[in-house]
């Protein structure tokens, strides 16, 4: 158990800790509340950042690292015109709800092959929804030159472990693991703080 003072100091920092083997331990709702994170949160006041990716605004609405979520995690992401995710895959389910704007989802569903290969392109639009099957390589791209693309994203099995591809012909085995992912890294809680 972390000392309470430590939790208070960190507030919007991590409420989960990585142990030596990289596993995460969730903390109870009570602990989250004690840490000064209110149950009802104003989305406009939540921490947001581009996490080093131009054109992105990411807000973790409910997260594993941030709020101790164990089964699902929810993000609100806004992509400025032309901005996009990396080409990537992850072994969790992912559901998108498009709140504003439009764009394109690129999806390579032949993940049994050695490499993603040429992806299929699907137009996405305001009030549309789509999901990404586990481990399918994909990329979300705001291809609309005039408008931001805003999506609500739900993933299972947080925190997400992302494998990133440089291009669609990169072999699956060469994809680079990024864990913890950028917004989880921000909240990394070093094990010694637990003692
Ligand atoms: C999205 O679709 C639902 C179902 O038809 C509808 O109730 C809702 O008003 C729509 N939202 C927007 C923002 O268009």
From TrEMBL:
Main location: endoplasmic reticulum
Protein's UniProt name: Auxin-binding protein
One GO molecular-function entry: metal ion binding
Pfam families xref list: Auxin_BP
Keywords: Auxin signaling pathway, Disulfide bond, Endoplasmic reticulum, Glycoprotein, Metal-binding, Receptor, Signal, Zinc
Binding-site residues, Zn(2+): 88, 90, 94, 138
GO CC term, one of those recorded: endoplasmic reticulum lumen
Subcellular location: Endoplasmic reticulum lumen
InterPro entries reported in the protein's UniProt record: Auxin-bd, RmlC-like_jellyroll, RmlC_Cupin_sf
Glycosylation sites (chain numbering): 127
Species of the source: Macleaya cordata (Five-seeded plume-poppy)
